[in-house]
Amino acid sequence: MAPRADGRLNHDLLPDEKGPQDACGVFGVWAPGEEVAKLTYFGLYALQHRGQESAGIATSNGQQLLVYKDMGLVSQVFDETALNALQGHIAIGHARYSTTGASNWENAQPTLGATAAGTVALGHNGNLTNTAELVELVAERYGSQRRGELARGNTTDTALITALLAGDPDHTLEATALEVLPRLRGAFSLVFMDERTLYAARDPQGVRPLVLGRLERGWVVASETPALDIVGASYVREVEPGEFIAIDADGLRSVKFATAQRAGCVFEYVYLARPDTTIAGRSVHAARVEMGRRLAVEHPVEADLVIPVPESGTPAAVGYAQQSGIPFGQGLTKNAYVGRTFIQPSQTLRQLGIRLKLNPLREVIRGKRLVVVDDSIVRGNTQRALIRMLREAGAAEVHVRISSPPVKWPCFYGIDFASRAELIANGLSAAEIGASLGADSLGYISEAALIEATEQPASQLCTACFSGRYPIELPPADRLGKHLLEQNELPLGAPEDGLVSITPGAGGSTALDHP
To answer: Which CATH number fits domain 282-335+353-460: 3.40.50.2020, 3.40.50.150, 3.40.640.10, 3.30.420.110?
Structure first.
């Protein structure tokens, strides 16, 4: 049997050079009479860019929840046989990039847990900042023994939410959720379900996107609007910050569990979201083109050709060319089929690793003064290698333009940047960074111009990775971190006996029943 891929498809151009890693993608559907597992599969396919480590789908037929999840891309995890086994009228799906907890099968989503009246399956996009506090809350409410997914080695903040939703015999899942949600801090766009109802919730800041759509015979919730498009759902509205939604046979119910204090992630506009997404009424593609125009105003240069670093730099490069009057061209060609190679190249080949994904079009760039447009710089190694490659291909000058401000601060709300010590903009000026990269000049868009391009009020955006201003209060450093739940000193206690039985099946499928 061929080995399964590990799913670590990425946009990074150099081996071991990690750029800003995407948040997760979530999808949920309530649609009697429809093939909800297949709708969810295609919804996740549209959200694959948000997480490439693992994928999973849970369905309910009104009596039982079934989950199928595994490491890998959506197209690697699921086939017709798996999807046909996932029968029902409710489904949720998740495509994961790990922001809390390691990348392994135990941490794949949706997570499962027992509730007072049945079972809950949950998918989470974002990252909680009060994880340590929630660990203590779980221990206080349910004793020292680990429950549910926590007992089976799950080390994510999602497993903590699932454990807290267990509730007690006197409360429904809906009532328990309305008690638990106000206690969560950080970024969370949630889809979850029990045997009869689909739920969705979004944190009061609305850090990560979440939208609501209508099918002819049902409802859809998803991280981004293209997931609605792909399944033929019409866009209704955003799930509001601080809103909890329940969808069942009686229709859709909405409750505000917290006052909205909007602080949407500005990096969704820069890089994370698909260009064909609309966030808060603004087309992401249009915002990126406008970023390029404003970049040309703030950092003009005499040049012969504007080229993007594909694909993320393309809309901003179009805008830069339109504003500056410098012709736009494709100076780099990208191999669309390269994800992660399982053949380890020699050190010599590793140093040339950027050519696995990008190669210069020499006849286009030879002798030209180039403006090279990219979305961001993290460590700088990729841009350094790219500039060297363009010069070797005959470029006369290389002027780098970046459609986001310098990334100087880590994100605690669902983007996995390099550590602050590794960020090249931490402690260096733009001129010094440009010299370090080997560029003839380097220009970053200003924070003010970036915000103007989004057409959102500055007061309703999170710019922490650029400014260090965190809109959601952070706990002490020793109570933060991706691997916090893997630390033995936290009061998670020992694994419990019984409560629910989980039986892994072929390809990572899971059925959950009460014993």
So the answer is: 3.40.50.2020
